[in-house]
Amino acid sequence: MMEGGASCLPCTPEEEKRIVTDLMRMAESNLKEGNLYYVISNRWFAEWQKFVGQDNDEYPFGDSSKHMSMVLTETKSKPGPIDNSDIIAGGSGSEDEDSELHRYLLEGRDYVLVPQEVWEKLFDWYKGGPGLPRKLISQGVQQKSFSVEVYPLCLKLTDSRDNSQSVIKISKKASIFELYERVCRLRGIEQEKARIWDYFSKSKNSVLVASNQTLEESNLHMDQDILVEVQVDGFWPSGFGMDSTGNELALVPIEPSRSSFTIAGGPTLSNGYSTSYTSNLYQVGSNLSSPFTEREDGHENISSAVTKSEKGGLAGLQNLGNTCFMNSAIQCLVHTPQLVEYFLQDYTEEINKQNPLGMQGELALAFGDLLRKLWSSGRTAVPPRAFKGKLARFAPQFSGYNQHDSQELLAFLLDGLHEDLNRVKQKPYIETKDADGRPDEEVADEFWRNHKARNDSVIVDVCQGQYKSTLVCPVCQKVSITFDPFMYLSLPLPSTVTRTITVTVFYGDGSGLPMPYTVTVLKHGCCKDLTQALANVCCLKKEENILLAEVYEHKIYRYLENPLEPLASIKDDEHIVGYRLPKRLSGLTRLEIIHRCQEKYMPESHKGADRKIMGTPLVTYLQDPQSGADVDMAVNMLLSPLKRNTYLHSSEVHSSHENGSVSEAHIAQPTNSFNAMEDDTESEEEMIAMPFHLSITDERGLTLSRVESDSPIICGQSLKVMLDWTDKDHEMYDFSYLMDLPEVCKTSFTAKKTRQEAISLFSCLEAFLKEEPLGPDDMWYCPRCKEHRQATKKLDLWRLPDILVFHLKRFSYSRYLKNKLDTFVNFPIHNLDLSKYVKSKDAPMQSHVYELYAISNHYGGLGGGHYSAYAKLIDENRWYHFDDSHVSSVGEAEIKTSAAYVLFYQRIKVGEPSQSHVGS
Questions:
Q1: CA 846, CA 221: separation in Å to the nearest integer?
Q2: Would you name the residues annotated as active-site residues?
Q3: Residue 893 CB neighbour total at 10 angstroms
Q4: Peptide bond before residue 130 is cis, with ω within 30 degrees of 0
Q5: Distance CA 665, CA 724 (A)
């Protein structure tokens, strides 16, 4: 609960702003591990920013642009007490580092972080709360960075004595020794008699030995299980301990590998690799092994080749908490034929642990081990814990449990694998020479030789190509030509003949707030195209449909139920809404709710009548409604997200599941009797009282009869009800969410801009290669003018790699919005011929025809959504869908979707036929 009311403000808004700004700067200049920061609801903090006139650029709102709209449009007023109830599970709490925050909140969208000194000032001025302190931690090995641990590690503790369960919340930087202290204190156990197991997936993986090693280094992950056992008379409850002769049984340290190299996560040896988690773990005998234990990455020797199993390449990857982005990227890489062949062989001789740009070989070892597990585990899902641990150490930007970008991870992995496997131990210094009119072939070969003299790895052999970059000075016409290597091509998505349509989508089951989306569709398309575009951006589930309707004067003017109706019938100044409803509507009654408000709740432009229809109608479906109580229950369900202080942001609810869904789409289930009253002595009138004032209306909106709790409902295809809002209703629900529908053609800060177009991969490539001026922030220094100039730049493909990766630039960023373009890109699966784009005269000597073999997909919007992968087993000539742990076969015709994000192509060798038919 909030602690008291707000105190009298000792400062003016300007003074508050100055004090907080100074304290922020002071804290930023004195960053050190252990400093306290406080989590504050962005909803409250945005009100404070508005009050003091502070620019909110520091906290971009991304998808949650509702806050931005408030900041820009509302008049400033003094905020009430600090209110963190909307970001805390349960809505209230006491000041405690263990206060439970809603999962998957995003900084800047849902909350902000302020230093302890700023929190103390804000609390002194406003009171409220609760306080949510979190510690600053240091992350990374090569490049240290500070971050606030907003979500401490959550471990599910099982006590083997009685199988009781409890939750331990502890920093991932805490040591195993500290974990023992916490567990033993909680369970009242002597530390000498306690043994804690890594109990991931409810399997005894290994014993955690008390040491100074951190929980993060031990690869313990959010929400995983740990098991505590207590020794009794020298025996462990599992039977391990001492036998009758006093000999120790089964608990033995892992034997070091005979090779001087071990896979990432194995024991520390004398080869100089950094300490890894299993150096402080023990493993038990094979009688405790399980499918997950056997398949977990981090325990394999690489000094000998591994043979593919019969079902190799069909193992999924367990989701460790928003790691679908990582799983998608990994599945694409581990299904790259050349990398599979390389990492299944003995690659120890190529590990480069001296490279200062690499990770001492640990990333390559971790990736190789994971690839081997995936290709030898049949169809058993692999938990990539050791790999994620290495990733967090060397790339802390990917640590934690927020969603990340699969392409950014791919870029890091390819570069990191290259540096770890670089055959060049000592890179020579090479001075780049200008072209000076020499033939392009000569200059290109020189650049490539220089590049290979410093960079020589399997990644360069397989994945790196070369493009020609031509810069022309607009003043002196100086031409500069360079030939640069590339690992992938990031292609923009050009526009076509389209139109944008803004639709506000409502939940027909009351599971989230309404959200406007702006999608781009073909001008000559139909309503089916619009619903498909909306389905993609709002993560519509398979069992859901979107019902489109036009709202005019706060009533539904027409339903757009014909999927073939031309989009030309939707005018730019109209208001279109969409209702998320179940697909199966046969035999159900459509309930349409319109709203009527008193004059004092109307905007100034609408005043003049005692009561007037306002807002946006709500629609749901009822199954066999019998009485007014059934209708009242449906109204309560639809209004539930609008409850003040206790409602969840729709974007926050979306992010609770990676695929953007909130809950199973369901039909409002009526009850034949309203909730039983607690007091049996209540009068009959009180027992039939309705929480809402509802009336049955006709097609014109005229009231026919009042709806009481026991009023019989005559079932039909549709039922229209008028909801008269009372003062109590306005106090409980935020009616503003039902106001001010955006017009079809006018986007606003509250709209998620997206694109849904039909373009080809070739048009994307041509947009990438076209000549264009450099941006004002990317000026070129002209050696002839001796000044920075806004030169024109032209790219041409020169040398193509065996594996060609296309990144479709679906995400765009502006000052106020982060947008995703849900454009459908029509890409070839077979016979992608790039010959005409390759400018090298030597090009005809090599094939430039490619075959698709993997896709990284992204579904949903920014700050959430879900990643999966399609990958082709070349030996089978069959496609599979890799969705975290779940792997299923998929038809080739199904892999081309608007979710395609990163495309992986393999060169077809000269004389090799394209695999244009899927194997049976």
A1: 47
A2: 324, 866
A3: 9
A4: yes
A5: 28
Name residue, tokens 């903090």: 45
Residue that has been written with the tokens 């959430």 in this structure: 864
What sign does the dihedral 241-244-247-252 (CA atoms) show? negative
> Coil, helix or strand for 468?
strand
pTM as predicted: 0.56
Q: Which residues contact 358 (CB under 8 A, 6 or more apart)?
A: 352, 416, 419, 420, 422
What residues does 155 pair with on adjacent strands? 168, 224
The count of other CB atoms within 10 Å of the CB of residue 678 is 6
Mean pLDDT of 878-907: 93
**pLDDT surpassing 90 at residue 617:** yes
Phi-psi region of 163 (alpha: psi -120 to 50; beta: other; left: phi over 0): left
How far, in Å, CA of 66 to CA of 817, rounded? Answer: 11
Query: Is the model's pLDDT at 140 over the cut of 90?
Result: no
Q: Report strand pairing: 849-859 vs 900-907.
A: antiparallel
| DSSP-assigned letters across all residues of 23-89 | HHHHHHTT--TT-EEEEEEHHHHHHHHHHHT---TTS--TT-HHHHHHHHHSPP----SEE-GGGBT
| pLDDT per position as a tens digit, 143-189 | 667 888 888 888 889 888 888 888 888 888 888 898 998 899 888 88
- Three-state SS for 597? strand
Distance, CA of 176 to CA of 201 (rounded, Å): 20
How far CA 487 is from CA of 412, 463, 840, in Å, comes to 11, 6, 18
State the chain's mean pLDDT as an integer.
77
Per-residue pLDDT at 814: 44
CA 607 to chain centre: 44
How far is the C-alpha of 364 from the C-alpha of 263, rounded, in Å? 9
pLDDT in tens, 497-530: 567 899 999 999 888 899 999 888 876 678 888 9
Confidence tier at 285 by pLDDT (50, 70, 90)? very low
With cut-offs at 50, 70 and 90, classify the pLDDT of residue 281.
very low
DSSP 781-801: EETTTTEEE--EEEEEEEE--
β-strands 787-789, 780-782 pairing? antiparallel
Classify burial at 478, counting beta carbons within 10 Å of its beta carbon; exposed 0-12, middle 13-18, buried 19 or more: middle
CA distances from 590 to 198, 554, 637 (A): 52, 18, 15
- Res. 72: pLDDT tops 80: no
Distance CA 698, CA 746 (A): 32
Is 422 in contact with 451 (CB distance < 8 Å)?
A: no
CB atoms within 10 A of CB 886: 11
Distance CA 685, CA 124 (A): 49
> How far apart, in whole angstroms, are the C-alpha atoms of residue 117 and residue 753?
38
Coil, strand or helix at 398: helix
Q: What's the distance, CA 743 to chain centroid?
A: 30
Q: At 640, is the secondary structure helix, strand, or coil?
A: helix
- Token couple for 47: 């009100």
List, for residues 405-415, the tens digit of each pLDDT value. 889 889 989 99
Residue 98 token pair:
């263990």
Tokens representing 328 are 């998608």
Average pLDDT over residues 843-870: 85
Compute the 3-state secondary structure of the chain and give helix, strand, coil in percent, each to the nearest 5.
25, 30, 45
Structure tokens at 667: 């039909």
What Å distances lie between residue 920 and 691, 877, 883, 890, 891, CA to CA? 61, 8, 22, 12, 10
C-alpha pair distances (Å), 193 with each of 174, 245, 844: 21, 20, 73
Share of the chain above pLDDT 70, in %: 75
Beta bridge partners of 548: 560, 578
Statement: residue 665 has pLDDT above 70: no
